[in-house]
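Query form — protein CDP-diacylglycerol--glycerol-3-phosphate 3-phosphatidyltransferase

QUESTION: What is the three-dimensional structure of this chain?
INPUT:
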Amino acid sequence: MVAHRLSETARLLAQLVAHHARGQPGWPTSASAAAPTPSATSPSTPAAQVLAKNDSAPSPWSKLGYMVDGDQVQVLTSPAGFYEQLKTNIRNARRHIVLSALYIGPQEHDLIQTIHDSLAANPSTKCTILIDYLRGTRGASSNSVTVLAPLISAFPDRVNVALYHTPELTGWKKRLIPPRFNETVGLLHFKLFATDDQLIISGANLSHDYFTNRQDRYMHIADARVARHYARVVEAVADVSFRVRVPEQKNAEGGYELLAPTPYSPVDAPREYKRHAHARLAPALVVESGSGEVVEKVRDTLIVPAVQASPLGVYQEQDLMAGVWAGLKQAADAQREKSDWNVYFTSGYFNMTPLTMNTMLGLNRPVNVLTASPQANGFFGSKGVSKYIPDAYTWLESRFLARVRGTTQPIVLAEYARPGWTFHAKGLWISPVASRLPWLTVIGSSNFGHRSMHRDVEAQAIVVTTNKRLQEELRDEVDALWAPSKVVEEKELEARRVHWLTKVVAYATQNMF
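ANSWER: The structure tokens for CDP-diacylglycerol--glycerol-3-phosphate 3-phosphatidyltransferase are given below.
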């Protein structure tokens, strides 16, 4: 495997991750202070310099993202809690409501009514909703757009509903690949919900099961700069997406029209569209100037935004995650005989990229992997070819365990198996073995798989924290996710007898899921 060449930003993140992985306290006062030295454990050396509680020096880490007060970050643990917080944020919005997900369930009238009521009560509030074109228009008579159409009709000058269409689905692909199957080409996969100074970043879509019995992850961040950053990203993608128009005379099919983005359409002029979309999105990815303000004692948490939009030439998540893995590898190589921190990794759709798998398996640290059991897979019981998808993931799990067989590194694979629930959580946590209080987590829409890196448009947050309350919430989150799980071994997976044709198709199409 060819090593990923790190950008300057990713190298800086790697230094910070290595600092924390080595168990050094607090925040280094400079990037050089984060680098390892022969006497790094001595408190009198530059490598151990950290910000004192009342230090007013600017933080070098604000180049990566946003230093925030960890007490303003909350881990939400349940679908119902996520939904209630989302509605509360919408009700309290006074300036803008910016929501982005793969789709909105066609029966989510309660959510739409909440948005309607907020807009009616606050005439200056504007609303942008960004979803995926293919998923959002699936089903001609009842889909995401039809449920949103009344909102557009009620507030035509204040509600913008945009549908991102991948520029990879053009020509013969657009004409010949049928609905649902065409979604394998690429999707808008954001799960970002920004309202004024509040942000919820998640892996959950906006539909009934995600509000009731489909387990995911959710982080509520009450910081104006962070909320603005992700809102800018959503607005940028919305600007290069199809726009929904509801004419006064509803003679269009479904009661709405889809207006192609200008000056280029992703369907008719994909090359020009990619260049234009990249130019529009790139400035929105830049960390807000002025976020490098003095670091006060309450600024103990770093939020690093990470967007991946390979079709648009944006590889921020890929680059920054390579920095995370490089920092962990650096710390692990410096202390090969220690087993001082754990890796917790989860994905509802288990299909690691080579970089993720190879690095994780070379850390010489305990690794705990969690994925969905066949019954907790969202495709379990589906009709058509989709019903074979859980079997395909079983086969990928088998390949993973075969890969780790014979290694001395303690690696445990478990499956989420909560009766009546499905599993959609994804993320990474790094925590000391002794305290089990994570100092790093990665949360967002990415499943860390092939399609997340190469096909879809994703948004993540890499969170580094020394805030004990937040660390305790992250520990509790890990415990809650793993609690209804069951460790699986190779023999059990083999006993499921995945059909040889499923294996062949899964191997041939593994970069599509």
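ADDITIONAL NOTE: Residues 17 and 142 are 46 Å apart (CA to CA).
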